[in-house]
Amino acid sequence: FDQQPLAFAYAALEPSIDTITMDIHYNKHAAAYSKNVKEAAIAEKVDMTKPLEDVLYKISAYSTKMRNNAGGHYNHELFWKCLTPTTNLPTGKLLAAIEKDFGSLDALQKQVTEAAKNRFGSGWAWLIVTGDKKLIVSSTPNQDNPLMDIAETKGFPLFGLDVWEHAYYLKYQNRRADYIENFWKVLNWNYVNERFNSL
Ligand code: MN
C-alpha cells in the first residue's frame, strides 16, 4: 500500500521519458493513488498487512474509490519496476514463450503497440499470462488491471504500459504513438523475465 522508492533517478529515462514527467508522475499522480488506497482501506476495513492483490482479486466487492486507487497503486508500482535506463531483452523461458505464443518479439511488440494506441481515453496495455499459461496482450480502461475480478481479460501481468495522458503529454502532447515507440527503449525485460520465472 506504500510507494516504494524508484530504482533510478527522474532523469534516468531521458529522452524516452522526460524528467519532469517522471517527477510529477511518481510524486503527484502515483503518490495520490497510494494515499487514497490507504484511506479506502481504512474506511472499508481492509487488512493492509495482507497483499494488495487480495483486494484486486475481489475488487467488485469494494467501492469505486478502492477500484480506482488500488488499481492505480498496483499498476504504477509495477510500471516503475518495468522501466530501466539500461536497455535489455527477454531471454530464456520468457523468450521461448514469446516465440511460441506470438511468433517473435517483434510481433509481440506490434500487438502491445496496437492495444496501447487503440485504448480510447485513459488506460493500460498489458502483457499477461493466462490461467492456462499462455502469453497474451490485453488492455484495461482507467486504473483497472488484469488481476481484477471485473477485468474482461484476466491474467497475471508481466508488464503494463501506462497510456494515460499524464504519462506522456508534457513531452509528446498528442503523439501517443511516439511515446509508445520510445517505451520499448526503457522496458526492463530483466524484471519481466523475473516475473515470468516466478510463476
Ligand atoms: Mn500513470
How would you describe the overall organization of this protein?
The chain is mainly α and 199 residues long. 48% of the residues lie in helices and 11% in strands. The chain contains eight helices and three strands; from the N terminus they run H-H-H-H-H-E-E-E-H-H-H. The protein has helices at residues 19-43, 52-57, 64-81, 92-102, 105-118, 169-172, 176-183, 189-197, and strands spanning 123-129, 135-141, 156-162. Strands 2-1-3 form a three-stranded antiparallel sheet. Helix 1 crosses helix 3 (64-81) and helix 4 crosses helix 8 (189-197). The longest helix has 25 residues, at 19-43. It is globular, with a radius of gyration of 16 Å. The model has no long low-confidence stretch (mean pLDDT 98). The structure holds manganese (II) ion.
